[in-house]
Amino acid sequence: MKPLPLLLCLGIGTAAGADGVNTGYFGNVAIKGYDPVAYFTEGRPTKGAPEFSYDWLGATWQFSNAWNRGAFAAEPIRYAPQYGGFCALGTANEEASANIDPEAWRIVDGKLYLFGGREGLEEDFDAHVGDVVAKADVKWPEIRQKEFQARQARGN
Q: How many Å apart are CA 17 and CA 32, to the nearest integer?
């Protein structure tokens, strides 16, 4: 794996809402306010709006319309990004970062994956998707636990 795309996933710290949902460094909004359902229905990242928000797992999720909000409320697991919205490549490499780029994404086998940037996705994720997902699936429970413990220690 090239180091540059992994560096895009790494940050100087991490931030998460309840139960490991990445909400970035500021506020408590998942996916930087992007609509998780739109990745599936529109096939592209779409900014959500505060008037179409929904609270789930201690984080606020924003949607571009009421229909998407309702679809998410009915089946949040179906639409929520894998690994709590942390970078999939970073998770596979035992790192979690609040620095995600909502424009850097993939849907594989009906699951949404987010990344720290678009550079290198074809080489580092697309070309090795099975290996990356398998590694990240194994490492996510430990990373999730560390995130939860760090949040508790900070009083978040």
A: 12
Identify the CA nearest to 5 among candidates 119, 123, 122: 119
Q: What is the pTM of this model?
A: 0.84
Cβ neighbours of residue 152 closer than 8 Å, sequence gap 6 or more: none
**Tokens, residue 119:** 């550079």
Residue 115, beta-bridge partner list:
101
Degrees (nearest 5) of the Cα angle 154, 13, 64?
95
Q: What percent of the chain has pLDDT over 70?
A: 79
Kindly report the backbone phi and psi dihedral angles of residue 94, in degrees, each rounded to the nearest multiple of 5, phi listed first. 65, 35
pLDDT tens digits along 4-20: 344 334 333 334 444 56
3-state secondary structure of 100: coil
